[in-house]
Amino acid sequence: MIHPSVSKNKQLHLPRNFIRVLVLSVILLGLCVLASLAFGSRTIGWNELMIGLFQPDVQSHEASVVRQRIARTVFSFMCGAALGVSGALMQSVTRNPIADPSILGVNTGAALFVVCGISFFNIGSASQYIWFALVGAIITAIFVFGIGSMGSGGATPLKLVLAGAATSAALSSLVMAIMIPRSNVMDQFRFWQVGSVGAGNWSSISTFIPFLIVGILIALFTAPALNALALGDEAATGLGVRTGTIRLIAAFGGVLLCAVTTALAGPIGFIGLLATHVIRLLIGPDLRYIIPMSALSGAIILTISDICGRLLGSPGELEVGVVTAFIGAPILILLTMKAKMRSL
Fold it and tell me: Which is nearest to 165 in space by CA: 237, 216, 234, 96?
């Protein structure tokens, strides 16, 4: 699948600024943990925070709130990491600098199948959501790529984005058409539709973990070959890369991570786009480093968005999907205006 010369010719060497970016990311991640545990509908003081973290025998209200927020924070990190890696894979597979699960319509396809499962098959568990979401995401990804590949020039970045936007709009309409006549489905998922990590708990985390591990392992395994693909299909083939197989495996990894996140947290947009762009800007194009750093960056961005939603919506909260849309939409417009719409 990957010729040994790919690894030999690309010896591991740290990209520029890698150590500084890594240290900064770890510090930001630590600050996100503290802020996520402290801020919400009720602000938790430092002493109460330490009691909640390190004195499990104490059963005060503040300690209970801190422990609930621990699960939410871990779940937010996992969702952000999954979306960050998914965005990196989709941008590499499509060679589209503004590819993202939400822009290509993949998470909308996953959402549609989850809503169909609830409405017509009475599914109710997280594991059932995941399988329905995975099927929906795969079918949508194939459909968007097929539409974007039609005509001269094949699957260009512009055609993929247009196909994804049109597909996402159509599927969103189908979601609403299915939900509106069914008040029980509408009540159950009206907040899930905009994306939220507020329902994250240890059960959803344990369900998420194996899929997250598989998706990240796929991403790391395919990273050297995806680097070769960035040189062009002919050059990659000359290095012994089976381009079709690598694209299929990497696309599956990206779709898997997106589908699982959508099933458990709802369709959260723009995280993959933002996380990967920030990291590529800071450390360069090597996917062996972009993928793990996109996971860190995605976790940070999503958790900061969740904290902002809690603060802005206090005493309630704004769903994190709304916050990421407010942040991501203007950035996408700027990227589209400045980009020359060419391959990576």
Answer: 96
